[in-house]
């Protein structure tokens, strides 16, 4: 195995994953690396899951708090949830087993704006962080760490945890060295200073993570791949959504409200976001930039074609094919890709300053433009708010997109009232479905309702929405945001009862 550990003091702490896992006790809060399947620890979490299972077999309860950057992988979230080993999970997850436990009421989950997590820990809002388990790509002679394929909250975990377990993964390309930008200038209020980042491609920090070697209680060597999930090729609906957005952006350039190279792009997770990038790659814009959270296949394609000059993110989220492409040419890409801590990639101050164009997916929106990103039928968590709030609230333009219907047409994604609200009407400027785009800027609630129903709703649901809105306008006691309260959730209730509209 290639030696990635060049610090003698830390080399002396190398041990097996089982030995390292035995240093984690029930009741501890554990800060794990990992962000959308990139850079999560590959060995210690599964070893810990085994240890928890053994404890359970012996009639002992063994649960920990699991804090991460964002979602991880089956061998972290999945393995720990499977053995019911997670007391509290934060700040984002997308694992099926986790989701099941959370929705069954068997696991506590706090869904937090991703930019809030680090500072909440620094403020002491979340309690004590006992152990950090962080994957790195290598260790320098002086003990500094070469970050892995995501940064997430690693800087904060390493600073705040009492004890540190490092996983050194030789599967990660050694060429990652130099790609990261870790800013150590963060202060706590009232002593905060402006973040000196004025262009999305600026480097303001250093390429390595610092870690007090005294705190390191174990180093585990691994050679295992990230969880790289495939994207489906853009379907007809995603292509149409992308088409509407492209047309809109071109119009904004024509109107002089956007420069020709646009403004830094943020693109959410999932296939639709990826399709929009594919659309932009074939579109008329040149010299684009990205200030985003995860770098998906679509953006890598744009870096490759040259449409995208540079991209700033906190993690990769690539398919195996895209990863092979990146790895083969990492030396070249490294100059144009910057991975930052998530409190910087998602920082409201920076997003507002740069004027980011935010494009995120959603579960449903209501006729006034309130957006639900997280809860199906108001109570079942899907994933979490992730970075969508960080970006939507502070963006130059905040765009939300979804197919107009879900579950093969059984459900309308435009509803009278959102069953859960993550992004209020105030933070939503543009709604897009395959049917069309509603530009909500400068519109009052009643004008918004007309635009959303007219442009975004599926023809199968449009008459019922128009009918609801007309009656609300007539019978609602208030005419600012007309609603019929006895009816607002009737659409959801029908779905829950298994009836079609
Ligand atoms: O479920 O696969 O079981 O059928 O929700 O929906 O249409 O595949 O869309 O992959 O873009 O996900 C909001 C979840 C959309 C995502 C959400 C069901 C649908 C399907 C997924 P099935 P699609 P996407 C920064 C940005 C929050 C985090 C975020 C998300 C599943 O975009 O998690 O924005 N966003 N981060 O069937 C019932 C409806 C539904 C519905 C969709 N109205 N009712 N089910 N579904 N609409 C990046 C990060 O933070 C990491």
What is the strand and helix layout of this fold?
Layout: H1 8-11, H2 17-21, E1 29-32, H3 44-57, E2 64-67, H4 74-82, E3 86-90, H5 96-103, E4 108-109, H6 116-123, E5 131-139, E6 145-147, H7 154-160, E7 163-169, E8 216-222, H8 236-254, E9 265-267, H9 271-282, E10 288-291, E11 294-296, H10 297-305, E12 308-313, E13 315-317, H11 320-328, H12 330-333, E14 337-339, H13 342-345, H14 348-354, E15 357-361, E16 364-366, E17 371-372, E18 375-376, E19 380-381, H15 388-394, E20 397-401, E21 405-406, E22 411-412, E23 414-415, E24 430-433, E25 436-439, H16 445-456, H17 462-475, H18 490-496
Parallel strand pairs: 1-2, 1-5, 2-3, 3-4, 5-7, 7-8, 9-15, 10-12, 11-13, 12-14, 15-20, 16-23, 20-24
Antiparallel strand pairs: 5-6, 16-17, 18-19, 21-22, 24-25
Helix pairs in contact: 3-4, 4-5, 8-9, 9-10, 14-15, 16-17
Bound molecules: ligand 0RQ.
Ligand 0RQ is lined by residues 36, 70, 268-272, 293-294, 360-364, 373, 376, 382-383, 385-388, 403, 406-407, 411, 413.
């Amino acid at each position: 195995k290639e030696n990635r550990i060049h610090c003698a003091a830390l080399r002396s702490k190398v041990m097996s994953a089982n030995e390292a896992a035995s240093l984690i006790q029930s009741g501890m809060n554990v800060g794990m690396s990992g962000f959308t399947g990139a850079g999560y620890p590959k060995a210690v979490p599964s070893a810990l899951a085994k240890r928890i299972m053994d404890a359970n077999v012996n009639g002992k309860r063994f649960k920990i708090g699991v804090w991460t950057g964002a979602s991880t992988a089956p061998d972290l979230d999945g393995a720990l949830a499977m053995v019911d080993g997670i007391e509290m999970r934060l700040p984002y997850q997308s694992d099926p087993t986790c989701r099941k436990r959370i929705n069954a009421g068997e696991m506590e989950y706090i869904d937090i704006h991703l930019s809030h997590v680090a500072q909440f820990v620094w403020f002491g809002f979340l309690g004590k962080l006992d152990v950090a388990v962080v994957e790195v790509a290598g260790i320098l002679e002086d003990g500094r760490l070469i970050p892995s394929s995501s940064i997430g909250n690693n800087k904060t975990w390493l600073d705040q945890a009492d004890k540190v377990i490092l996983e050194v993964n030789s599967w990660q390309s050694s060429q990652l060295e130099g790609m990261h930008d870790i800013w150590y200038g963060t202060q706590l209020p009232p002593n905060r200073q402006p973040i000196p980042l004025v262009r999305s491609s600026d480097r303001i920090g250093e390429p390595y993570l610092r870690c007090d070697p005294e705190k390191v209680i174990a180093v585990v060597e691994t050679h295992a791949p990230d969880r790289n999930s495939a994207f489906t090729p853009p379907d007809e609906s995603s292509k149409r959504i992308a088409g509407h957005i492209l047309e809109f952006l071109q119009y904004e350039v024509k109107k002089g409200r956007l420069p020709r190279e646009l403004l830094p792009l943020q693109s959410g997770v999932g296939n639709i976001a990826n399709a929009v990038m594919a659309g932009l790659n074939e579109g008329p814009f040149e010299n684009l930039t990205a200030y985003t959270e995860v770098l998906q296949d679509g953006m890598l394609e744009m870096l490759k074609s040259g449409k995208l000059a540079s991209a700033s993110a906190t993690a990769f989220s690539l398919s195996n094919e895209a990863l092979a492409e990146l790895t083969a040419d990492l030396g070249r890409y490294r100059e144009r890709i910057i991975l930052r801590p998530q409190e910087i990639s998602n920082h409201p101050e920076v997003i507002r300053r740069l004027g980011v164009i935010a494009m995120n997916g959603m579960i449903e929106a209501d006729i006034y433009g309130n957006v639900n990103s997280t809860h199906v039928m108001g109570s079942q968590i899907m994933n979490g708010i992730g970075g969508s709030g960080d970006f939507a609230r502070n963006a130059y333009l905040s765009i939300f997109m979804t197919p107009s219907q879900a579950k093969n047409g059984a459900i309308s994604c435009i509803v009278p009232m959102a069953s859960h609200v993550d992004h209020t009407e105030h933070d939503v400027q543009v709604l897009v479905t395959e049917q069309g785009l509603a530009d909500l800027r400068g519109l009052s609630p009643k004008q918004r309702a007309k635009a959303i129903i007219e442009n975004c709703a599926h023809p199968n649901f449009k008459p019922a929405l128009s009918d609801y809105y007309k009656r609300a306008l007539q019978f609602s006691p208030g005419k600012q945001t007309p609603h019929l309260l006895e009816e607002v959730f009737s659409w959801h209730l029908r779905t829950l009862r298994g009836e079609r509209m």
